[in-house]
């Protein structure tokens, strides 16, 4: 089962809720994670169950980053607000860096998110199952 994380800055929360509502059928058989408030808002608008971490500024971004570092995340949808400075910017940069290091698809805007979700719906994430089979085991 694929693992997907949702994160959104305050002014992007409505966007991510609308996105997940529009593609709820794609996410219903996936294991979903989110930072606190974002996950709460998605669950209020859908029938999806989401494991919620702390809010981003309180460490939620880093909790999701830990799953990325363990290669246990298959897709991250992170609606960033590029027009507002974030007090936890180093956490955000670290999360995006981990996605790059581990080759995890990450969308930071609506256009990329829709492309990745449509790829997910087509089954184009099958390569992630191969990664899971061949990932190094923890020592």
Q: Can you walk me through this structure?
A:
The protein is α/β, with parallel strands linked by helices. The chain contains 7 helices and 5 strands; from the N terminus they run βααβαβαβαβαα. The protein has helices spanning 13-22, 24-27, 36-45, 60-69, 89-102, 110-122, 126-134; strands spanning 3-8, 31-34, 50-52, 75-79, 106-107. Strands 3-2-1-4-5 form a 5-stranded parallel beta sheet, with helices on both faces. α5 links the parallel β4 (75-79) and β5. α4 (60-69) packs parallel to α5. It is globular, with a radius of gyration of 14 Å. The two termini are 24 Å apart. The model has no long low-confidence stretch (mean pLDDT 92). It catalyses: dihydroxyacetone phosphate = methylglyoxal + phosphate. This is Methylglyoxal synthase.
Write the layout of secondary structure elements.
Blueprint lengths: L2 E6 L4 H10 L1 H4 L3 E4 L1 H10 L4 E3 L7 H10 L5 E5 L9 H14 L3 E2 L2 H13 L3 H9 L5
Parallel strand pairs: 1-2, 1-4, 2-3, 4-5
Helix pairs in contact: 1-3, 4-5
């Amino acid at each position: 089962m694929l693992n997907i994380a949702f994160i959104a800055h305050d002014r992007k929360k409505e966007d991510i809720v609308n996105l997940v509502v529009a593609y709820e059928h794609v996410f219903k058989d996936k294991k979903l994670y989110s930072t606190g408030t974002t996950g709460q808002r998605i669950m209020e608008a859908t029938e999806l169950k989401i494991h919620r971490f702390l809010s981003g500024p309180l460490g939620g971004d880093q909790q999701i980053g830990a799953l990325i570092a363990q290669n246990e995340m298959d897709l991250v949808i992170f609606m960033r607000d590029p027009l507002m400075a974030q007090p936890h910017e180093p956490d955000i940069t670290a999360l995006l860096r981990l996605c790059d290091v581990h080759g995890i698809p990450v969308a930071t805007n609506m256009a990329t998110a829709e492309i990745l979700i449509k790829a997910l719906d087509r089954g184009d994430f099958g390569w992630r199952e191969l990664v899971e089979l061949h990932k190094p085991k923890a020592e």
